[in-house]
Amino acid sequence: MYALKLDADKQILSVCECIEGMQYEIIVETFPNGKGVDITDYRYIDGEYIYNPKPKPDSLESTAEEDTLSMLVDHEERLLMLELGITEE
Fold this sequence. Notes:
This protein has 1 helix and 5 strands. The chain has one helix at about 65-85; strands at about 1-5, 10-15, 25-30, 40-45, 50. The strands form 2 sheets. The protein has a 3-stranded antiparallel beta sheet with strand order 2-1-3, with no helix packed on it. A two-stranded antiparallel ribbon has the order 4-5. A hairpin with a 2-residue loop joins strand 4 (about 40-45) and strand 5.
């Protein structure tokens, strides 16, 4: 037996094995599992598992604006180091 922890929208947050003597709100016999299955991509509503994946974050590639800002910070740091007479070794 397994216990499900759900958020307010009934999205599954986690699954754990039931421990004798403990009380759980939602107990199930099986749950979606296997290679490549992410249990947090499911909702549990009225005894059924409904596939409901969360939107994946955008790619981790930086934007042109982020690259420009990063270069500006680096440039300012180098100018400051020159003014203070600090050199990289």
